[in-house]
Amino acid sequence: MAEISAKAVQELRKKTGAGMMDCKKALAESDGDMTKAMEWLRKKGITSADKKADRVAAEGQVGSYIHTGGRVGVLVEVNCETDFVARRDEFQALVRNVAMQVAACPNVEYVRVSDIPPEVVAKEKEIEMGRDDLGNKPDNVKEKIVQGRIEKRLKEMSLMDQPYIRDQNISVEELVKQTVAQIGENIQVRRFVRFVLGEGIEKKESNFAEEVAAQMGGN
């Protein structure tokens, strides 16, 4: 059995909010594997962040981030349970960091995979099924390859599945859970909107040669 260090126990506790002894036991049961230990805690219903996830979070804050130059702006709503926690520095820092994350991830369109509409998933599957590199493969093999690609694609569209920009070793979901463990309330990223300067505006492209010819013809 792997030797469990105090540092590993502390790291697992920070990620999950579970008690020290539970974290030590989870790591022992998982041979020191952090990911398996987190799964073990979830299966046992010990993770405090998961326990709090069902509690109503109707307070919180709408935060914003404007990127340098004013070309990209983000509004994000993050909810917690009480107005007191909404005013805490830790919560407000989380809101700012989530807004910055959205600005840094132009391909992200939804908060979580479960928010992606079925029609979008179906369209992505149709695109993947039609790729040239799958043409000669058996249907059962093709289905497995497509399923793997779809799962990867959907995670690319999900904010909570993104590697956190300030610590690539954790996801945005893990960042939120760390804050839940820290402040002791349910926290939910509810929605966001990204504004990109000029997006959707059809820009007129001038043809210099045609402009010169038109001016000469008018003389």
UniProtKB/TrEMBL annotation:
Region of interest (Involved in Mg(2+) ion dislocation from EF-Tu), residue spans: 82-85
UniProt keyword list: Cytoplasm, Elongation factor, Protein biosynthesis
Localisation: Cytoplasm
Keyword set includes Cytoplasm: yes
Domain of life: Bacteria
GO terms of molecular function: translation elongation factor activity
Keyword Ribosomal protein carried by entry: no
Domain Translation elongation factor EFTs/EF1B dimerisation per the UniProt entry, residue ranges: 52-199
Predominant place of localization: cytoplasm
Pfam families named in the record: EF-Ts_N (PF25025), EF_TS (PF00889)
Any one cellular-component term (Gene Ontology): cytoplasm
Similarity remark: Belongs to the EF-Ts family.
NCBIfam families noted in UniProt: tsf (TIGR00116)
Job description of the protein: Associates with the EF-Tu.GDP complex and induces the exchange of GDP to GTP. It remains bound to the aminoacyl-tRNA.EF-Tu.GTP complex up to the GTP hydrolysis stage on the ribosome.
Protein name stated in the entry: Elongation factor Ts
Gene source species: Microseira wollei NIES-4236
